[in-house]
Amino acid sequence: MSNLMSGAKMLLECLGREGVDCFFGYPGGVTLPFYDALYDHHIRHVLVRHEENACFAAEGYARSTGKVGVCCATSGPGATNLITGLVDSMMDSIPIVAITGQVPTKLIGSDAFQEADTFGITRSCTKHNFLVKNLAELPQIVHEAFYIASSGRPGPVLVDVPKDVFQAQGHYSPVTSIHLPGYKVFTEGHTGQVRRAAQMIWEAERPWVYAGGGIVAAGASPELRELVEIVDMPAVCTLMGLGGLPAEHPNFVSMPGMHGSYAANIGMSNCDVMIALGVRFDDRVTGRISAFAPHAKVIHVDIDPAEIGKNRAPDLPIVGDVKRVLQRLNKFLQELAPDLQAKNAASRKAWWGQVRGWKAEHPLAPVFSDTEIKPQHLMAELDRLSGGQAIVTSDVGQHQMWAAQLIRFSEPRLWINSGGLGAMGFGLPAAIGAQFARPDKLVFALVGDGGFQMSIPELSTIASYGLPIKIVVMNNGYLGMVRQWQELFYNNRLSSVELDCFPDAEKLAAAYGFKGRTVQKPTELASALETAVNEPGPYLLNVRVAPFENVYPMIPAGAAVHEMVLGPPEPVAVPK
Amino acid sequence: MLQVISLLLENKPGALMRVTGVLTARGYNIESLTVAGTLDPELSRMTIVVDVDPTLRAQVIKQMNKLVNVLQAVDLTDSRAVVRDLVLVRVRASLDMRTAVLKEAEIFNARVIDSSTEGFALEATDDPEKLNEFIQVMRSYGDIEVTRSGAVAVSLESKKLRLQPPIPTPLGSRDRTSAEALRAVKTGAQTGRDGETAVEVIEE
Ligand SMILES: Cc1ncc(C[n+]2csc(CCOP(=O)(O)OP(=O)(O)O)c2C)c(N)n1
Ligand SMILES: [Mg+2]
User: Which of A419, A535, B147, B152 is the least buried, fewest Cβ under 10 Å from its Cβ?
Assistant: First the structure.
């Protein structure tokens, strides 16, 4: 089979073969031929209002499904606008293919209009990138890009396509295989090591599971669940791993880290065997790394060999796909159980008692007030309305931390946030991508008043496609997280963190043709949220919350986990 | 501490930029870097000397191996290997010093490649430390000008080169996601680092 077609058409053919049903982008001069081919093609193009949001939306699509998210931008400013999204997906290991237009090949290097060295600029913010030099190599490169993006440790791959390559005509014959001789993916894990891990776990007195985004990426939730049930041991899921183990599961403790729970952090500090699954010992989890989990022997499973030993030297490294490794680990655990299970069963039981005690001592519980809406009250309501089933995309800041603490997710891929990069402006466009990917789902875009104002242009996209996203602004009138740090570490000198002049939500939504409202009274919050959910279309709910609430517990930056601060200092009487 | 790395990589656009970019971004200081073609015109050989804490050596190799275009990254620091560096030195030598300079050059096996009334141009090839000494000695004769090639190295042990075999592309059924399709083709999967079941093995 071979037929004559343009490069633009060929690209669409390849996208079709990769199963792409929709993608997010913004056109421009050099992508004109591509958009012309799109005009009568079945693949759906979603026109966002800024390229950064095209990449965030593609991430929302990818994060909510596990499929590759695709975004597209023109050369020069279009491509540079993608950068934050690319770095974001790099940090959180999200499979993205970004297609950028480039000036015609013969103009490359001449400082042509809207020329930027996209290939050079994106080298460090992609897993791999390509500059297509001629039409003949285009199909091959597109399939390589999808393979690299989605296999091994997922990540963003950029394909830069010059305008003349889009325009050139060539005979297309589908690529049947690709060859990347230097790209190795280790999936299985070493049998001997996996067996030793099983033995170490049974011999532990205080075992502990530290599960992260790798569980979500690998689709290893069922295996994780089996693991904690076989051994009956406590587990934490990181910010990136929430939902990896259902929040309601009896073995789930909570989130660890800077704003993790007391039990999660103290447990990590006291365990004797730590089973680290698809995690990278990020500083927001470990606090001061030298003081992290000082008594623990670490079993570290990750598909990326470079993560093993990067921040913490493991006692037992296993390179492999965490799903496959866990399948075999669970088998070994069951095989070894008759010989080993009983030995330390009593200690493990006592350990559980201790962990439950810590949990009861300092639970992550919502706070309520009669006079103002506490941020935690809002999260409790979102938790109630989502019933563990809704998709919640979050922006970055205090609201993100309270949401992670208090909204309970029963599955992976429901909690969608910018973890590694902490990119404000992520939440709203990510909700767009998630809603396209999962039209059946209730999607909340939970954003701060700061981040929301970075994303306002996308209200137009939401309106245009009639996406029934429920935008919930946790409006504290401040860049709350920065204000919190200024209060705690800079003598409360609040420097450039106040956000006045927030627009009237009802009028703002009305300007785009949908409904919106501001709610201020604690008694009205539940019904206001219900109204939003019951509205068939989009809804903008601006929730005015207590402005000076701080997120606790908190491990100050650079402090050790046991130096955690549990709550605000007791008020001290000021002498007159 | 200096680490000597030998890389075999595909001769693709941007390959050099990827290597140097990763090293810089991770904070490893490049002491020297050489790159040239191999018998296979599609491949290049790179020798890199980086200054890193010994505990980070494995991490550097892993970061290199993560690059899609790198076929093999080998740490030669402690293995049987030959490391060579080339130096070109211009020495000003007054008439009364000329014989002394030549004597000294002979000791270091350096060749005279140019001679003029002002002095000599010398060429020496040796391991990098030996060349440091040579340069020190030449300096004692006055102003010198030095150009070094950077280290090139060859391992004296034969290493198996493991390459990924070709992978079929997805079929494009619209309800089959590419991730699923890929998972399906990955089933002839491989074993971890110390594993055996890998991939096409080519003796180099
Ligand atoms: C793009 C970007 N700029 C700046 C920051 C630094 N930053 C982190 S949290 C935060 C405050 C966010 O304020 P808001 O959106 O109102 O959320 P809140 O913390 O009040 O819930 C800022 C400015 C960031 N994470 N991302
Ligand atoms: Mg705010």
Answer: B147
